[in-house]
Amino acid sequence: MINVGIIGCGSIGVKRHIAEYEENDNVKLTAFCDRVVSRAEAQQKIYGGKAYEKYQDLLEDESVDAVSVTVPNHLHAEISIAALKAGKHVLCEKPMGLSTGEMDRMIAAEKESGRQLMIGHNQRLIKEHQVARDYVTSGKLGKVYAFRTTFGHPGPEEWSVDGKESWFFKENEAGMGAMGDLGVHKADLIRYILDEEIVEVGGLISKEAKSFSDVDDNAVCILRTASNAVGTLQASWSFYGSEDNSTTIYGEKGVLHLLGDEKHSFVFTGRDGTVVQENYGGIQTNDEEGQAKKSFVMDAFIKALVTDERVPVTADDAKKSVEIILSAFESDRTKKIVMEK
Length: 341
Hints:
Mean pLDDT: 96
Number of strands: 15
Structural class: alpha/beta
Domain Gfo/Idh/MocA-like oxidoreductase N-terminal: 2-121
Helix content: 25-40%
Oligomer: single chain
Domain GFO/IDH/MocA-like oxidoreductase: 130-256
Organism: Salinicoccus jeotgali
Shape: globular
Pfam families: GFO_IDH_MocA (PF01408), GFO_IDH_MocA_C3 (PF22725)
Order of helices and strands: EHEHEHEHEHEHEHHEEEEEEEHHHE
Largest sheet: 9 strands, mixed
Protein name: Gfo/Idh/MocA family oxidoreductase
């Protein structure tokens, strides 16, 4: 049994982390923390345990084995490092950090602690994307030539506990907007499916859709992989209609369409006429029905701790996905293509 504490009891902490932990037979929810302490107390009334206003107090609780860090982006590094130093395993929401320096300190803290740090990238954990990776790595798709991946919805004001007043829209707390919320997911996904790194990044980023926000709400990136595949990544908080979380991979032997068809979440169309259509269940969305789906993140985190295996989304790996997003901002600022290290 893993005793879990939740640091951050907003919408993500409650509707995703707590909801999935509660269904895991290997988890006991034992502590809840939020700077609005009434939110932590509300969860305590449901699940028992203790409620805290300050994360430092929760980390002093020796009964807590692991924590989820579901707080504003600018606190990810600070709290994750403190939790690791306190001897806790950590599941931190994305983006992992807001700078290379922050992420390097998180990685160093993990290594020094002997505990595990996992970053909450759910896209690589759903079956559609795992099968797609198999098509690429096994050669079923042949050489990959091009790709496009998109994540867009109306924005966090639709579901955040604070609406338009949410930290998501404040640069001093979020650091970045749609790119940190959605773009980093797709950067991680492309790296995962193609099983290679991005070597060049171009970014066009704007702040036009949210008058109450001071962070980016739309971005289009051009990416080149190490094997010379080229493609686009789009992140948006202005898709004022149905959510789009689709990816298409164009290869030598056919095309993969992922999460872009209402009936079939996985479609392979081969050059030889072969058509494979499957529905593996899709991915979480922000509507009520989509929220009920599992992200598989919490289960994967707990499984690694119970079996003493390495977590499936390591800090070293997640850092590379954030660096793509940071490079896109640099490209937009300098009007130049940025070469990845």
